[in-house]
Amino acid sequence: MKKLILIKYGELTTKKGNRNLFIKLLVKNINSLLKNVDYKIKYDRVRMYIEADDIDLVIQKLNNVFGIHSIVKCYKVNTNIDEIKQSLITVLNDIKFDTFKVETKRADKSFPISSMEFSRMMGAYILKNVNSKVDVHHPDLVVKIEIRTEATYIYTDEIMGLGGYPVGVQGTGLLMLSGGIDSPVAGFLSLKRGVDLECLYFESPPHTSIMAKNKVIKLASIINCYSGNIKVNVVPFTKIQEAIYKNVDESYVITIMRRMMYRIAHEVVKRKNLNVIINGESIGQVASQTLRSMSVINDVTNLPVIRPVACLDKLEIIDLAYKIGTYETSILPYEDCCTVFLPKHPVINPVLEKCIQYEKMFDFESLIEEAINNIEVISNLEEEKSDLL
Ligand code: ATP
Ligand code: MG
After folding, report:
1. Pick from 278, 204, 196: which is nearest to 234 by CA?
2. Among 153, 265, 316, 333, fewest CB within 10 Å belongs to which?
3. Which atom of ligand 1 is nearest to the CA of 286?
4. Residue 107's closest CA among 150, 53, 67?
């Protein structure tokens, strides 16, 4: 009897044509996640098996992998009735339960006993050898037996995986990552759909501090648990912000500032050959996130902008932030460039022509070019588990 991990694939099984690509990427992601662990991996179109010395450690790591429907600790035995019986008893002797039921799946149709009949036979054998009762409706334990051509697999518990698509299968997006609650959640949700991430953070020293920057790097490290490839691009934004405050009516500063952020994001996506811009905007949350504001701001780019939390309530976003472990870091009280010069009455219905007029007041193109040329790239991020997880 050999102990191993069985992985059932997530939603990828619905994508027939892309299935091989999906599975290969999932394997690649698991391989890079397990780079420092001793293990062997085997897979086919339906499932994957991993053998390892430290099974619990591997399972813990697999809990962060998108594209996995469920993770099962299982036992592989030869398809031989006596051997199956003996293994069942060995496995069940290690588990505390009063009631059970057996479920057999006969994937190998050449096996001569039907699934129902085999469950009944094994149930009777367990009753005889382990002090327990059968309960087909609400058992403490479901004993699963899968008879396949190459072997038979026995298992009793199945841990739900994260689901979603393998990270990277949809390319890479540029996440505008601030120190707030929303954008890390937006990043997590994008990873879940198979979009890998690079992050873009705008800093305005000395108006924003090194602590604010470190907080963003920490947030990126936490979501990096689900990717392993995330980099943070830090954009020096001070000169642009100061030019805006010098030249633009106070009510429009946030609108113009966000148009500048989008212009820079657009350029970075193009230069790095990424696919989309992603951010944590949520409809109606603040003045710059009314539909009218969004369209005036969005006007500077023709790239798709994905807003995964656009339609979530703040409480729903907080709930997710808590679950993925970013909340406690997000609420640390360091300032963001959006909050340092917050105007008293930001416009909620900005007019595009006015924005264009204000932007003629200063040479924003060369300031943007300079900012992009001075981006600091932070790679090799930790894959940092939050204390909460
Ligand atoms: P909060 O959780 O407080 O709303 P937030 O980060 O969502 O924080 P918003 O003012 O709502 O702050 O900004 C909307 C979006 O714009 C953010 O989710 C983020 O994607 C982007 N953004 C804001 N500030 C920055 C920044 N300094 N660097 C990069 N992206 C930013
Ligand atoms: Mg927000």
Report:
1. 204
2. 333
3. 11
4. 150
Whole-number Å distance, alpha carbon 181 to ligand 1 midpoint, is 8
What kind of fold does domain 2-163 have according to CATH?
Answer: VC0802-like (3.30.2130)
Tens digit of each residue's pLDDT (9 = 90 or more) over 353-380: 999 999 999 999 999 999 999 999 999 8
**pLDDT of 62-76, one tens digit each?**
999 999 999 999 999
Residue nearest to atom 31 of ligand 1 (CA): 178
CATH entry, 172-385, from 3.30.1330.40, 3.40.50.620, 3.30.70.100, 3.20.20.70: 3.40.50.620
In the three-class reduction of DSSP (H, G, I as helix; E, B as strand; rest coil), residue 101 is classed as strand
Q: Which amino acid is at 277?
A: I
Q: Which atom of ligand 1 is nearest to the CA of 309?
A: 18
From the centroid of its chain, how far is CA 38? 25
Query: Roughly how many angstroms between the first and final C-alpha of the chain, as a whole number?
Result: 33
Query: How many A from CA of 182 to the centre of ligand 1?
Result: 7
Residues of the chain with pLDDT under 50: 387-389
Q: What distance in Å separates the CA atoms of residue 8 and residue 292, rounded to the nearest whole number? A: 44
CB 346 within 8 A of CB 287: yes
Measure 182 CA to ligand 2 centroid, in angstroms: 5
Per DSSP, the three-state class of 354 is: helix
Report long-range pairs for 114-122 (Cβ below 8 Å, ≥24 apart). 118/145, 118/147, 119/145, 121/81, 122/84, 122/85, 122/88
On the question of a cis peptide bond just before residue 206, with omega within 30 degrees of 0, the verdict is yes
Q: Where in the chain is the domain with CATH 3.40.50.620?
A: 172-385
pLDDT of 388: 44
